[in-house]
Structure formats: structure tokens, C-alpha cells
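Hi support team,

I submitted a single chain yesterday and got back a structure, but I'm not sure I'm reading the C-alpha cell output correctly. Could someone confirm the output below corresponds to the sequence I sent? I've pasted both exactly as they appear in my results page.

Thanks,
R.
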Amino acid sequence: MEVKPTEEFFRKRPVFPVSLVKPYFQTEEGKFPSRKKMLTPPEIVEVEDYPGPVSKIIRARKIRLNGKDQRQYLVRFKNQRADKDKWLAEDAIPDGSLHLRIFRASRRTEHSDQ
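Hi R., thanks for writing in. Yes, this is the structure output for that exact sequence:
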């Protein structure tokens, strides 16, 4: 506890009245004001949950799982609607190296055209 009374207060009273002291409880937001609230990371889909072969990779994102950054890709499956798209880790994408190469090449051409 830290008390910063004014000079005038000490001229009138040489001691601080303990009855005015109240306990201070610091909340988690108070301890870490710049910390953002963590969202629950999305579940990674297991291989048997795939609705079919991969058509293309649409987007990429980086999330934090267990204290480590992990890149995930939004995968669209052949003959499936957009609501069936899934976020998958790089190593969980069937034929991932081929689809990732195509995805990265398309992103390079998009950025160079602008």
C-alpha cells in the first residue's frame, strides 16, 4: 500500500489514520491492461472428418496454440459448399505440399498485380 497525502495534511496531523485505509484487490485486467482476451482456438479436424478431396486452399492465418504460433489454412473440398470449408494445420492437409505451392504462387501473383 502506498499513501501520498498532501503537505497540508501532515501539517494538521503528523500521522495517517489507519481507519481510512481500505484493502485493495487487483483484478486480472488491472494486472495486465494491455493483454487481449484469448479466444478459444478452433478445433483441428482429424483426417477421417474430411468431406472429400481438397479442391483448393482459400486463406491462411496464424493462431497461438499451447504457447506456440501455428499456421492454419482454410481448405475447400471438391464438390462441397463454402460452409463445409475447414481450417486445417499444414501437416493435416491431404496432398498439402502441392496445394500449398499453388496457394502461395497465387498469393504472389495477386500481390505483384496490385
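A quick pointer for reading it: Residues 96-113 form the longest helix (18 residues). Let us know if anything else looks off.

Best,
Support desk
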